[in-house]
Amino acid sequence: MPLSLDQRIDAVSNELQSIGRLVAEDENARKKVLGIVTKAVADFETPVETVWKMIMSPHAPSALMVLIRMGVVAKLAEAKQPMKAKDLAIVSGAAELLIIRMMRPLVALGVFTETEPHTYTSTPISEVLTTPPLLGGYQFM
Q1: CB-CB neighbours of 64 under 10 Å
Q2: Domain O-methyltransferase dimerisation: where (predicted)?
Q3: Half-sphere exposure of 56 (CA within 13 A, CB side)
Q4: What are the residues whose beta carbons fall under 8 Å from the beta carbon of 111, sequence distance 6 or more?
Q5: Domain positions in the chain
C-alpha cells in the first residue's frame, strides 16, 4: 500500500535529519545539500510568502542590532530558558512593545523562537551571535 502524503512528508523530514548529521563533517556535501534544500524552499514557497520575506529582510539586521545593543541577545542566550517580553524590557530598559516588534522579523528567520505569545528563547543562531568574533564583527558593520 502506498504511503500517505503525511507519511511521505515525515519520511522526507527524517531523511533530512539523518543527512544533516552525516554532512556535519563534510563541508562540500553540506553545501550541496543546502543548495538542494534552498531550491526546494523556493519551489514550495507561495509568491506571498516570498514577498513577505523580502519585505521583512531589511528589518531583521536593524532589529538584531537594536537587540544586541540593548543586551537582549546576550540575556536570552545566558538564560537558557524562555523569557517574556515584559522581563526582557525590564532588564534592557526598553519598552515591552519595542521588544515584541524587534523580535517579529527575527523569530520569522529562526534567530529566536517564540514559545508562547510574547515569550522568547534563544536558538543556535542567536547563541552564536554572542561569541566575540561574530558579536564584534556584527556591531561594527
Answers
A1: 22
A2: 54-131
A3: 18
A4: 60, 64, 123, 125, 126, 129
A5: 5-44, 59-139
The crossing angle, in degrees rounded to 10, of helices 132-139 and 59-69 is 110
Note the pLDDT tens digit of each residue in 1-20: 899 999 999 999 999 999 99
Strands (E), 1-141: 83-84, 112-116, 119-122
Domain 59-139 has CATH 1.10.10.10: yes
Q: What is the mean pLDDT of residues 22-45?
A: 91
CA-nearest of 70, 84, 64 to 128 is 64
The whole-angstrom distance between residue 88's C-alpha and the CA centroid of its chain comes to: 18
Alpha carbons within 13 A on the beta-carbon side of 105: 18
